[in-house]
Design brief:
This protein is mainly alpha-helical and 335 residues long. It has helices spanning 10-30, 38-46, 52-86, 98-112, 118-140, 149-173, 177-184, 193-212, 214-222, 224-229, 234-256, 262-274, 278-302, 311-328.
Amino acid sequence: MTKTKRTLPYSIKFVGGTIIFVLAFIVSMIFGAANTSINDVWAALSSSTVSDQAMMIREIRLPREIAAMLVGAALSVSGAIMQGLTRNPLADPGLLGLTAGANVTLAISIALLPFTNYFSIMIICMIGAAFGAFLVLGISSIKKGGFSPFRIVLAGAAISAFLTAIAEGIGLYFKISKEVSMWTAGGMIGTTWTQLQVISPFIIIGIIIALCLAKPLTILSLNEELAVGLGQNIRRIKTILFIVMVLLAGASVALVGNLTFVGLMIPHIVRAIVGTDYRAIIPMSTVIGAAFMLMADTLGRTINAPYETPVAAIVSLIGLPFFLLLVRKGGRNFG
């Protein structure tokens, strides 16, 4: 007689992920270069007090942590969609050219349109993300035999390096290296409520659309012929999901700069917890991705306080070993 492996219901797993997210948010609001207590945070958020500490929490720390939540959720969902669409376990917006493409158009906009507003910057970043993705997918499909996970990753690495070099060259030529590097460092420092008001609706809308298309994405990730047999309009679904990926990656770069590995790690961790159904993967990726970025930003603010450690460096220190382990396992889910 064989024993069947019991697993927790998805609702319990999601509640657990939400608790982790809430705890990460509380910790991120308490700790920083200027440590505060939970009572200080509660007083600043629940009353109209105008003390220096309350203003610091409301106008500096809170928008920064909301930015971390949005970016973590956006990149995680974008990575999950990309892995499902391409059936490539190594797919990630940062590794496949989306964030590098957004970054180079961001550098161009800073150089040529220095007074443009955040809405325009976001649109420019989305165009760049689409351009980077088209380059990677186009180059990786040139060789006969169609797409290959490792071929896409190699093309993504080459295009990302090329576009990053272009962005740096633009920074040097136009003497705006400092401004460009502030974005490419991948930090939430200096995030304002105005930026959040412009960009957050696009991220929220993108995640909602991804949730609505989770079921067809699950079928596409398993078998494209099955999706056709079930009457799905594959071209339309792929187009919408590609637009959502570009929307999420472009908005993230416009908000905090170039971040790699978030969209690779979180979906794999989530799949190890909830399985392969994207109706479970996307909501869980949203909360776990948000929690991860909150913790990474908190580390960046506290590990060498009062100086900032770039959050991109922290994410890369965690993400690179994860990537190498994933490659060694042949791309199978982590866990």
